[in-house]
Amino acid sequence: MEPEEVAAATLEALREDRFLILPHPEVETYEQRRAGDRERWLRGMRRMQRGLLGTPSS
Q1: Which of helix, strand or coil describes residue 24?
Q2: 21, 13 in Cβ contact below 8 A?
Q3: Distance of alpha carbon 12 from alpha carbon 31, whole angstroms
Q4: Percent helix / strand / coil, the chain, rounded to 5
Q5: Residue 33 to residue 58: CA distance in whole angstroms
Q6: Distance of CA 44 to the CA centre of its chain
Q7: How many C-alpha atoms does 43 have within 13 Å on its Cβ side?
Q8: Helices (H), 1-58
Q9: Which helix (H) or strand (E) holds 3?
Q10: Radius of gyration, alpha carbons of the chain
Q11: What is the model's pTM?
Q12: What is the pLDDT along the chain (58 residues), one digit of tens a residue?
């Protein structure tokens, strides 16, 4: 996203008095998954971290 798009989304959310501001739709999906099943989300984040670090699964 361009900075102008993020700024516009942020201003709109502030006007609507939203607590959580997620300007990109993909991030909103991630947040819904994280909130819906925290343990599954944490497993996925650990798996991603292992992949980035090149460490084997335990």
Answers
A1: coil
A2: yes
A3: 19
A4: 70, 0, 30
A5: 24
A6: 13
A7: 6
A8: 3-15, 25-36, 38-53
A9: helix 3-15
A10: 16
A11: 0.53
A12: 899 999 999 999 999 999 999 888 888 888 998 999 999 999 999 999 999 998 776 5
